[in-house]
Amino acid sequence: MSLRSLAAELLPAALQGLSRAPVVTTEPGAEASSFAALADKLGYLSKGELRQVREAYKFADAAHLGQFRHSGQPYITHPIAVAGLCADWKLDAQAIMAALMHDTVEDCGVSKVELIEKFGAATADLVDGLTKLDKLSFTTREENQAESFRKMLLAMARDVRVILVKLADRLHNMRTMQAMAPNKRTRIARETLDIYAPIAHRLGLNQTYRELQELSFEFMAPWRHAALSKAVKRARGSRRDIVERVQADVEKAFAQHKLKVHLSGREKTVYSIYRKMREKHAGFTQVNDIFGFRIVVPGLLDCYQALGVLHQLYKPVPGRFKDYIAIPKANGYQSLHTTLVSPLGTAVEFQVRTEAMHAVAEKGIAAHWLYKSSGKGSDKESATPDVQRLSAMWLQSLVDIQDETRDAVEFLEHVKIDLYPDAVYVFTPKSRILALPRGATPVDFAYAIHSDVGDHMVAAKVNDEPVALRTELRSGDVVEIITAPGARPNPGWLSLVKTGRARSKIRHYLKNMEAEESQALGEKMLAQALRAEGLPMPAADPSDEAAASLWQQLTRWSGNRTRADLLVDIGLGRKIAVIVAKRMAHFMGERGIRPDAVMLTLGRYGQDDSVPTQGMVFVDGSEGASIQLASCCRPIPGDQIVGYLGRGEGLLVHTAECPVGKRLFERDSERWMPVEWADELDRAFETQLDVLVRNGKGVLAEVASRISKAEADIIHLDMDADAPEETVELRLLVSVRDRVHLAEVLRAVRRSAGVQRVARHKPGPA
């Protein structure tokens, strides 16, 4: 830490005990951090609202009395500055009051109830949404940070003013962060660049977005920022003649066409130049569009007329025209972008938009309050409804993700995916436009339409052509989703999707499916273990007080919250059914319930089919997360099978002679249980064939033909890359109904002239 930073932190605290008025350093923006300056910005509020804001200021001032910032300024200067930024957006009185009191709950011990009593529930809810979760304990900084983001974003989904105040808070903190320690500055700057700047961009707050990026870059890489700033300053001087000539030409052209426009120069930020240099692996001199022009016109049709004037004046660069008016960006941004070649051969970018579009481009969703307060909401060209609708869609998606994601870090991961939407624009068959991140697949598209469409998706068509589900969508594609009632999400889809919404929906479905299957399996296993103790399974009916008390006692012993949680743990192998059954028998014995001799005999030694089937686990091909077939021996119907209850993995089914299974049995015998094939099977099963063939033309085709004629499918084929010239060993994964069908396939393959040997693959010693 530098001496200056150390002094800035220690001096105010030392002087606090000597004098009520501490020595302060000059903080950027401090001149505007007084209530008088704030009141000057609040002329759009009524007298009653201004009186409420003044009361909130007095409350915050009293709450923060004696607190100081790192710079030495009284702490109250920060809430006033945040409220001033909100006033620039013309936010309403409740938001201004929340901005003034946003740190009172976190730093001053003020309760939400007290805020409700003094300022109303709406203002208190805004403050609560802005409050970090310091009172909760978390295992890591990342978890703490993620939980804070979750609360903020969900509050924001209920009321977008929360994030507007939060962004104003972060912007002022970034402007005044020089007094902090360097490591803290770097951490906060990285967090701002990763989360807050993208949120500002997602909500269309481009002016705030650019400033947050610029300040973050300055604190994270001060040397690079300084070097690029000097280069931009030099370029500004050397290109002044070009800019002045282009501006004069453009103004003259519009005057000749009698089109009223407001022309202003535009310069890329240092961070955007740096990012472009990195993306294109280019030097500073190779970045051509550092300077550009923005043209604001009265109406929508004037935009296209102005574009025609520009294209008549200078030649456009092919492929550099973008119409964001016809197809707005995901955050509601609308403009025409075109790049023209100036008389001196340099590329110059122009942006053409209406006044309403310009307000949305700079203020995003905050333009809603600007237009409401200024009476411009009647402007027919206003894009404000679009930005409100698009922002509302994104905010609703946060609520959807929250519904399926209880882990805070996972929630933040999903949200960050959606914060970087380098968008493509695709169409539904009914010509509705959807914006998706670049690299999105038909699975993302399906979940963007509705979760039920995604959950029951089986195939997709793009531009009337069937495509694989991993196909990346391109702008202009027309996508059609084909569904089936019995279909369900595939775990493999998690590697295909790009949107947080699709990822959270798939994970939520798979978790629910796993829990349901594991609970059913756990119930069967516990019933079987209790029968071995000569006892019946207690009823699950809550109205049966004796059984409910017994289950409550058992779950308290096991550490589970509910009966269902205990059964899920048994089904996943986290708890052993035999041990749980013995504890249950002990509790039942305390209540005077004794083992039944007949049931005890049948449970252990009986051959009566009617009893074992109640607890026997049957494999029918519909198994999912809770029951899986071992990949080492790949059992098929007709094989003798056994089940191994892995720890947290569910039931893994091996063949009785599998060496891997035998080794597991020797090591962990209490985790084994009998399983059988069901009488009716739902699908075919995979097994591996090892085929030794002579190396020659058409041999592989002949083998494949024989397998196909035997009504089996080849799922996968593998062979050695460095096989001898005379013979080649093929490893075929084929799909068969049972052992009888496998025998037919083996006979068919043996009849092929090029086959020397064929056999079902057997796993080697474990």
What does this structure look like?
- There is one protein chain.
- This protein is extended.
- With 766 residues, the protein is an alpha+beta fold.
- Residues 1-32, 133-139, 368-385 and 604-615 have low confidence and may be disordered.
- Strands 1, 2, 3, 4, 5 and 6 form a six-stranded mixed sheet that branches. Strands 12-16-14-15-13 form a five-stranded mixed sheet, with helices on both faces. Strands 18-19-17-20 form a four-stranded antiparallel sheet, covered by helices on one side.
- It has four domains: 3-220, Hypothetical protein af1432, CATH 1.10.3210; 226-382, Beta Polymerase, domain 2; 509-677, no CATH class; 685-760, Alpha-Beta Plaits (2-Layer Sandwich).
- 50% of the residues lie in helices and 15% in strands.
